[in-house]
Amino acid sequence: MSLRLYDTAARAVRAFTPLRAGQASVYVCGLTVQGPPHVGHVRSALAFDVLRRWLAHSGLDVTYVRNVTDIDDKILAKAEAAGVPWWAWAYTNELAVTRAYDVLGVLPPTYEPRATGHVPDMVALMERLVERGHAYAVDGDVYFDVRSFPEYGALTRQRVEDLEPAADTDSDERKRDPRDFALWKAHKPGEPETASWATPWGRGRPGWHLECSAMAERYLGPEFDIHGGGLDLRFPHHENEQAQSRAAGDGFAQYWLHNGWVTLGGEKMSKSLGNTALVDEVVQRVRPVELRYYLVTPHYRSTVEFTDAALAEAGAAYRRLESFVKRAAERVGAGAGKPDLAPEFTAALDDDLGTPAAVAAVHEVVRQGNTALAEGDDEATAAALGSVRAMLGVLGLDPLDPHWSAAGGDDRLTEVADGLVALALDQRQAARARRDYATADAIRDQLAALGVQVEDTPQGPRWELSR
């Protein structure tokens, strides 16, 4: 393959060579379902959705795993405050996360395991670590001994001596080293009994880091190609994942990819900071496909500052692509043209998923396609249409994809609106036929006032909603 990816562990762009020929194995950290997702949450899913699509387009059989963390301290605390069972709180928010992924066109993973469904795998992993001398139990808690593993800190290039104490337990008194992190947390008085599981060390629940190591091994084996997640997960989460898995004898991830943050007001979008834009709310004022375009176009490792102005600009840019695709499809047919990718598009995505240059390549082909349309060159129009749809398909942005073409809201309401606009256009055409241009212009102006833009073409009038 010619694909090159920036490996966080190596601090360099490396040629991607899968462990098994013709296959790619990817594990991406999903969300902790403590609340509904905001725009910052879904950026990771979108970035790795493009990676997955590009791997598949390159001919690889992709196994893609994205987990759900459905038990942790915050879930228990928020469920208690709301007066509902923790599992009900978690599931309600899991549905909200799934809804956000679906509305933004994120492909479903090959497997989407929940943490609570894999406790036996976690216990088995802890037993291996204890036997190898890399973990120890104290009063029902189980800790990873960071000093027992000389490579600890390798992913983020930090020395153990320079690290702060692990902040995942209430006290460091029982630890061999304050930087040791919890693999397992003993059940505490007052916590729901249903939020604990039996182990050789007593009842309790998993620590956050243990979950992903156990689930990655279960679905991808002891060694796999790519581990992805947000930049904020590098430490401690991914550092701890790598340490515990390799200490247990696994090769674990061969490449580490991390996407950049979405910021709001210059700060990372975060529930704890109170500066979030919930996906459910944003897609009420912009089309989901435009939000996807906005988040996919920047390079996945860059920071995106979320503003209404930038979102509006991205929406206008996407509508230019969409307008060409729809007009060209009306003229030459939606399936016209070969699905050939522009060389610049392929080169851009092969260069560490360079979506800015890839999107620029799409716009250039659209420019050529618009020229062909204006000149009545159907062959060139078809060629441009086939190429543009293929490239937008890789980015999950093809306007004619059923996911987007069916995303018009209430089907009955859409049908009525289409019919009313068609009736108005018929009246306008009749006025023009009898040379009553004042009435024809008035109908067009009334439609424009409602946000309906009319364009006269050789095939007849066409319309679209303006924004």
Automatic annotation (TrEMBL):
Q: What is its main location?
A: cytoplasm
- Domain Cysteinyl-tRNA synthetase class Ia DALR, by residue range, is 344-406
InterPro entries assigned to the protein according to its UniProt record, in alphabetical order:
Cys-tRNA-ligase, Cys-tRNA-synt_Ia_DALR, Cys-tRNA/MSH_ligase, CysS_C, Rossmann-like_a/b/a_fold, tRNA-synt_1_cat_dom, tRNAsynth_Ia_anticodon-bd
Residues that bind Zn(2+): 29, 212, 237, 241
Please list the reactions this protein catalyses: tRNA(Cys) + L-cysteine + ATP = L-cysteinyl-tRNA(Cys) + AMP + diphosphate
Q: What CDD domains would the database entry show?
A: CysRS_core (cd00672)
**Any one GO molecular-function label of the UniProt entry:** cysteine-tRNA ligase activity
Ordered alphabetically, the record's keywords are:
Aminoacyl-tRNA synthetase, ATP-binding, Cytoplasm, Ligase, Metal-binding, Nucleotide-binding, Protein biosynthesis, Zinc
Q: List the GO biological process terms.
A: cysteinyl-tRNA aminoacylation
UniProt xrefs under Pfam families: CysS_C, DALR_2, tRNA-synt_1e
Q: Where is this motif: 'HIGH' region?
A: 31-41
Q: Which residues bind ATP?
A: 271
Tell me the superkingdom of the source.
Answer: Bacteria
The protein's required cofactors: Zn(2+)
Gene3D superfamilies the record matches: Cysteine-tRNA ligase, C-terminal anti-codon recognition domain, HUPs
Intracellular or extracellular location(s): Cytoplasm
- Which EC number(s) are documented for this chain? 6.1.1.16
Q: Quote the cofactor binding remark.
A: Binds 1 zinc ion per subunit.
NCBIfam families named in the record: cysS
Q: How does it assemble?
A: Monomer.
Report the PANTHER family cross-referenced here. CYSTEINE--TRNA LIGASE (PTHR10890:SF30), CYSTEINYL-TRNA SYNTHETASE (PTHR10890)
Q: What is this protein called?
A: Cysteine--tRNA ligase
**Which organism encodes this protein?**
Geodermatophilus siccatus
What gene name is given for the protein in this entry?
A: cysS
